[in-house]
Amino acid sequence: MALPLLRRWLDEPGSLTRRIRHKCSGCFYVEVLGERWGAPFLDEARRLGLRHKNWVWLREVLLCCDDSAWVYGRSVIPGQTLRGHLRGLQQLGQQPLGSVLFKRHPVSRGKIEIARLAADDGLYRQVVQSTAVAPGCWARRSVFHVAEHPLLVTEVFLPALAARAAGGESF
C-alpha cells in the first residue's frame, strides 16, 4: 500500500467513521470482532501511561463497506475511563466508537502516530486473525481524552480501502 494514496486518510483529524460513511457508496457497517477485558500490548500500555499488566477494555472491529473490510479498529480503554457517563463505551455493540465519541462528548485528540505493520508486530498478528492481509499495511493511532480520561484508538487501513483509494482522485 503506497503512502501517498492513503495520506489524506492517515492524516484525517476528525472521525474516520464519518469519512468512511461518506466515501462508501453502499452499505456501511461495523463488524464486532471482540469486546473483553484483557492486557494491552506493551507499547499500548506505555502510550496510555499504564503498567503492562493493567487490564483494559479491548474492542476490536472491522469498519466495512458492502462486503469489504476497509479498516481494522482496536480501542484500548483503561478501567478508570469507564466510569460515570463513559461506562456506556463497554456496550457499543455495532455502533462505531467514533460516532459516540465525536457526537456526545467533548473530545481532544493527541498526536496521530503513523506506522507500517511488520509481521512480528503483535497488532499485525491480531489483524491477520480477522482479515487476509500481508505485512506492510499502514496504521495510525491516537490517544483521545474525553473529560480528561484517556483511551487509545488504533486503525489499520486494509487492502480494500487502498485499492479504492488507488482508483479515484477524490477518494
TrEMBL record:
For whether the record's keyword set contains Cytoplasm, the answer is yes
Q: Catalyzes what?
A: chorismate = 4-hydroxybenzoate + pyruvate
Instruction: Check the record and name the Gene3D superfamilies matching this protein.
Output: Chorismate lyase-like
InterPro entries given in the database record: Chorismate--pyruvate_lyase, Chorismate_lyase_/UTRA_dom_sf
Any one GO BP annotation for this protein: ubiquinone biosynthetic process
Q: Which UniProt keywords apply?
A: Cytoplasm, Lyase, Pyruvate, Ubiquinone biosynthesis
Q: Does the keyword Cytoplasm apply?
A: yes
Protein location: Cytoplasm
**A single GO CC term, please?**
cytosol
The protein's annotated pathway: Cofactor biosynthesis; ubiquinone biosynthesis
GO terms (molecular function) for this protein are: chorismate lyase activity
Do you know which Pfam families this protein is assigned to?
Chor_lyase (PF04345)
Q: What is its EC number?
A: 4.1.3.40
Question: What top-tier enzyme class does this entry carry?
Answer: lyase
| Residues the entry annotates as binding substrate | R59, L97, E155
- Biological role: Removes the pyruvyl group from chorismate, with concomitant aromatization of the ring, to provide 4-hydroxybenzoate (4HB) for the ubiquinone pathway.
Q: Which family does it belong to?
A: Belongs to the UbiC family.
What is the name attached to this protein's record?
Probable chorismate pyruvate-lyase
